[in-house]
Amino acid sequence: MDKPTPSIKKWLAFGWSSFMKTKTISIVFSSFFCIIAGLLYWLLLRIDADLVIFPFIAGFFIVAPILIIGFQQVASLLEKDKTPMFKDLIALNGQQNKGIWFLIFILSLCYFIWITDALVIYGLYFGIEPLPLDQAFITDPALRESLLWFLLYSGLIGWVTAVIGFLLGVFSIPLIIHQQLNFVDAVSISVKTVFKHKKLMFKWALTLVMITSLTLVIALPLLIIVFPVLGYASYAVYADLLINKDNSQR
């Protein structure tokens, strides 16, 4: 039997249909992160630390795999025609919780390193005083040049850190949750699968970055919808590239 062709559109469609089936618990869960992001934005803007918002937005992609654990569990229940509950979004199921917790530690450490480096680079170019993002960055050549270098260097560090997080978490989390693999085996398969489907996974990562970035920058309230949709879609990625592959070889 031919294996269905993996498709980003199909993954997103699965994410949307799963969200529609679980709107109440999904919105309640994602609202928590939306409120945290909103408070962070408000605090940084209040102290005129506009530029610091961008490192925190970039850091979201590092810890995002951690935040989809609950959506992975709910999506699996939906495929089994079971009715998920809110506790399924917040409780860790299975016997390999140590692997999940260790992965959470690794990704959190990557996030801490990224934020620390970004703030150090910010300090090198702008000092320790908060600096609002206003027209001075356009009219002042020195500020404009500093902004470009800050975005370049912090962007490179953020890109490397986010790639590491993506490689580690994109498949290892569902493998630990659904197949009860240990941390080492799950990460090994995750990295191998990403490199095996390099072009497709690059497109998927780019899709995640574009959708999430636009949401965080210009439409933060939509995070309560976008976050669950992408979280459920991540299960479809795992199912397409690992579960369906195994079934097609039987």
Automatic annotation (TrEMBL):
InterPro entries: DUF2189 (IPR018692). Keywords: Membrane, Transmembrane, Transmembrane helix. It comes from the Bacteria. The chain crosses the membrane at residues 25-45, 51-78, 99-128, 148-171, 204-230. Coiled coil: none annotated. Pfam families: DUF2189 (PF09955). This is DUF2189 domain-containing protein. It comes from Colwellia hornerae.
